[in-house]
Amino acid sequence: MEIRAIVTDIEGTTSSIDFVRDVLFPYARKRLPAFVETHGDTPEVQHWLHEAAKEAGIIEASRQEIIEMLLRWIDEDRKSTALKALQGMIWKDGYEAGDYRAHVYPEVPARLRAWRAQGLKLYVYSSGSVPAQKLFFRHSDAGDLGPLFAGYFDTQTGPKREAASYAAIAEAIDEQPAHILFLSDIVQELDAARAAGFQTGWLLRDPAQASGTPTHPAYPDFDAITV
Ligand SMILES: CSCCC(=O)C(=O)COP(=O)(O)O
Ligand SMILES: [Mg+2]
After folding, report:
1. Ligand 1 proximal residues by C-beta, below 6 Å
2. In order of start, what are the domains of the chain with their CATH numbers?
3. Where is the signal peptide (predicted)?
């Protein structure tokens, strides 16, 4: 079946898990308390603090209690939409100050450009917030990759392990699921995408991850994917 669009995950797929865990998460963790104290009264931050409390089922909590809960969520790598929105706001400063650049695997930029040249439309679907995704690719260690993407999706579209999220993405990009290839390192995400009718590609960047027969077409890197 012809592929017309590719939707890619970030962490573990275009980019290393280590960069997210060892650079981005600690950066946000260190700055979150001061960020909330300084910006906690702005409507956007207030909205996401309220959403985080709602997600935790908390009716009344001090700002300090919310901060402590968010720090725990960072440690747990909780894929909370509210936490991801706040993390994205904190990471903006780091990118703009040049404290880090986002990691992308070496073959990814050229392969994305080749797919664009073939006429494919490229999209991102990550647990990171859409503003965080845009910053990530704008400030990558291979330069500004933002112009390669036609759109971005995060968990405001829905959880990554639910088929309905992929159906919503297909509708938003006006493409039939069978013509969309979803790339991820997480089998449960690929299962959900396949249940929605997408084609799937499993990035197995660490061969040690593989055990038994892969349940999705598996690739060690983007260059191995033929579209
Ligand atoms: C937008 S980069 C930050 C990555 C992040 O916070 C995250 O949770 C990555 O999850 P993914 O869905 O890309 O595996
Ligand atoms: Mg991933």
Report:
1. 9-12, 20, 24, 79, 84, 126-128, 132-133, 136, 160
2. 5-16+103-224 (3.40.50.1000), 19-96 (1.10.720.60)
3. none
